[in-house]
Specification:
Belongs to the LysR transcriptional regulatory family. Keywords: DNA-binding, Transcription, Transcription regulation. With 297 residues, the protein is of the alpha/beta class. 41% of the residues lie in helices and 22% in strands. The strands form 2 sheets. Strands 3, 4, 5, 6, 7, 8, 9, 10 and 11 form a 9-stranded mixed sheet that branches. Strands 1-2 form a two-stranded antiparallel sheet.
Length: 297
């Protein structure tokens, strides 16, 4: 039995579509399928059920995957011992992060990170959704809610503020917005309701019951672009919108939404030098960006 095949089993258990595993591993789908069949032959077990949604673990496959995760954990602990003893932080870290934070706050800081940590590679998975740390889709992830399960270390990173923003041209050609009730007469921009991945993103319900966006996208960057081009009024994080010269705040005293960012780190890599380095870097970045995050700059 090949340990690499067990690792591949774990990859497929976490990402049932072989095309996704191929993208992550660099192997083609045919090779992945052949190696899974080889593992089933070696063990004399049917590990996966092939379904339209991908490879789903059978009960036997789940038992093998649980044992393989234990081996993976032990291997990570050995690496962590080496990292603790070694003077050099090196390797690769995968960081899951919300799209806006990753694109507008973390990505611009990568030159500074590269200068501080020349031997660490950092994958920033900035998507409209979450990547799972417990499922090892990422080593660490910045989330909108505190995870309640899984082998993760969790801490609060920062509060942040969202407010209403619009282009001055949109406001000039539309009815005045003097109170929250006036928003019902305006084109609002927000998330596609059935694609909202966290209750923390249901901003319009916090502002007033019944507010419904006219223009929607699961991407906060797309919503920002709609607002800055004059399509309507959007709820945007202060750290994205406040420095945009195309936008002004709407009802700044009446509408101020507070949310928080939480950092989850998998226990297997929490103590490694490379993850500690990313942790320290994020702490410094959030500290230096506090005014942008909480709405005072």
């Amino acid at each position: 039995m090949n340990w690499d095949d067990l690792r591949l089993l774990l990859d497929v258990s976490r990402h049932p579509r072989l095309a996704d595993v191929a993208t992550r591993t660099g192997l083609d789908a045919t090779t992945i399928s052949r190696r899974l069949k080889r593992l089933e032959t070696d063990l004399g077990l049917e590990l996966f059920e092939r379904t339209p949604k991908g490879h789903v673990l059978t009960p036997a496959g789940l038992a093998v995957a649980n044992k393989a995760e234990g081996l993976e954990h032990s291997a990570s602990e050995i690496v962590a011992m080496s990292d603790h003893e070694g003077p050099l932080a090196a390797g690769r870290v995968r960081l899951g992060v919300t799209e806006g934070l990753g694109s507008l706050l973390i990505a611009p800081a990568m030159a500074d990170f590269a200068a501080q940590h020349p031997h660490i590679g950092l994958d920033i998975i900035a998507v409209s959704g979450f990547v799972s740390v417990p499922k090892r889709e990422a080593d660490m992830s910045i989330m909108l809610t505190r995870p309640k399960a899984g082998r993760v270390k969790v801490r609060k990173m920062s509060d942040y503020i969202l407010q209403l923003y619009a282009h001055p041209d949109y406001l000039a050609r539309s009815r005045p917005v003097e109170r929250v009730s006036d928003l019902t007469e305006h084109d609002l921009i927000g998330y596609v309701d059935d694609l909202i991945y966290s209750a923390q993103l249901r901003y319009h319900e916090d502002i007033a019951p019944g507010l419904t966006p006219r223009f929607c996208s699961p991407s906060i960057v797309a919503q920002w672009q709609m607002a800055r081009e004059g399509a309507g009024i959007a709820v945007l994080p202060h750290f994205i919108a406040v420095r945009d010269p195309h936008l002004v705040r709407v009802l700044p005293e009446a509408v101020r939404i507070e949310r928080a960012f939480w950092l989850a780190v998998h226990e297997d890599v929490h103590g490694t030098a490379r993850v500690r380095a990313v942790n320290t870097f994020l702490d410094g970045l959030f500290a230096s960006s506090a005014e942008r995050l909480i709405g005072t700059a």
